[in-house]
Amino acid sequence: MLTTNIRLREWRQDDAPAVLAAFQDPELSRQAPWPVVTLQDALGWIASWDGVGHAFAVTLGGRVVGNVAVARIDAHANGWVSYWTVREARGRGVAPAAVEELARWAFRERGLFRLELGHRVDNPASCRVAVKAGFLAEGIERGKLVYDGVRHDVERHARLATD
């Protein structure tokens, strides 16, 4: 595993080429809130986090290899975690380490108590990320997501500040 050089930092406008390249992966592009097919789209994706949550570029050796974010922070000190990595970083421990670092930040800096995330049940790699980052499975949400007209069940996970 190459997790010792992982860093989280604020997204910058000059990261737009990395975002654009990442969203060329069909696995990521279908999860984007809109198509990211130009540098302007990538800049829009970066800007879209302003005021809705905290998103961080995940870097490995100074290169952007992913994103971790906490959003939907509510009055009960709960937040929703999301993450992605570029294909080259997958299976190297990058995502679990980044999600774990995000959780520590959210509990310490934002004072959150509960972090939640969900993944399609047909995405075992995302489940491994959640479990390795200390998120416990809490159950299945049937038919929660729809991609290309197909409904997918989602497994929800959570991590508490006291875990």
From TrEMBL:
Transmembrane spans: none
UniProt domain N-acetyltransferase: residue ranges: 6-153
Full protein name: RimJ/RimL family protein N-acetyltransferase
